[in-house]
Amino acid sequence: GAVVSQHPSRVICKSGTSVKIECRSLDFQATTMFWYRQFPKQSLMLMATSNEGSKATYEQGVEKDKFLINHASLTLSTLTVTSAHPEDSSFYICSARDIAGNYGYTFGSGTRLTVV
Amino acid sequence: SQQGEEDPQALSIQEGENATMNCSYKTSINNLQWYRQNSGRGLVHLILIRSNEREKHSGRLRVTLDTSKKSSSLLITASRAADTASYFCATGTGANSKLTFGKGITLSVRP
């Protein structure tokens, strides 16, 4: 079945530094990937839609200069949290859908980011 | 904004019982999906139902969709302790559109 690999699963960084999170579709190609943020005991909030070969589409209220998204190939999208602050601490999840598929989206296992 | 609203927000049942979770939404949809999330993990796709479908089965799962009422239900039959997780409904407006998630339901199945 479709598998999405997300790395790292956990990361702790200092305030002001940048963190890159990778999302890879392992056995399928995805022209579109999605990045979500989830606070404890809350739902997933879509941050942006990552489009292969073009700019990402950000949701209202999400700072594109702070959350840099790159989708350089059909199997890899990256989210870089720049100049991280403690309030950026959260659970980040990516998802992708097989361009040839007719089923649900496949999600990565998530990245727990803690900014200290 | 949240599209889906699940109820109840928390459900606790005994192993072997059935669990019914409901989801309502506000706008027109192309499909509705249910996902499961174990604590601190990613989401696992359970089932997708299209707007022209009314009912779908997958193992112990049964999903219904009533587009006139803009609601869906997820039934888990013969629940197991391993079904303990959070369950989310999500709506899509197109075949490859972004998903909008509901707030989620926390299901606890007591052994």
Provide a descriptive summary of the structure in words.
The complex is a heterodimer of chains A (116) and B (111). Chain A is mostly beta strands and 116 residues long. Chain A has strands spanning 4-7, 10-13, 19-25, 32-38, 44-51, 57-58, 67-73, 76-81, 90-96, 106-107, 111-115. In chain A, the strands form 2 sheets. In chain A, strands 2, 4, 5, 6, 9, 10 and 11 form a 7-stranded mixed sheet that branches. Chain A has a 4-stranded antiparallel sheet with strand order 1-3-8-7, with no helix packed on it. In chain A, a hairpin with a 5-residue loop joins β4 and β5. Chain B has 111 residues and is mainly beta. In chain B, the strands form 2 sheets. In chain B, strands 2, 4, 5, 9, 10 and 11 form a 6-stranded mixed sheet that branches. Chain B has a 5-stranded antiparallel sheet with strand order 1-3-8-7-6, with no helix packed on it. The radius of gyration of chain B is 13 Å and the shape is globular. The termini of chain B are far apart.
Give a short summary of the structure.
The complex is a heterodimer of chains A (116) and B (111). Chain A has 116 residues and is mainly β.
Structural class by secondary-structure content of chain B: mainly beta
The proportion of residues in beta strands of chain B is: over 45%
| Overall geometric form of chain B | globular
* Averaged pLDDT of chain B: 91
Between the first and last Cα atoms of chain B, what is the distance in angstroms?
36 Å
Quaternary status: heterodimer
Q: Please describe the biggest sheet of chain A, giving its number of strands, its sense, and whether it closes into a barrel.
A: 7 strands, mixed
| Uncertain residue ranges of chain A | none
Number of strands of chain B: 11
End-to-end gap of chain A: 37 Å
Greatest chain-chain interface? Answer: A-B, 27 and 23 residues
The tally of strands of chain A reads 11
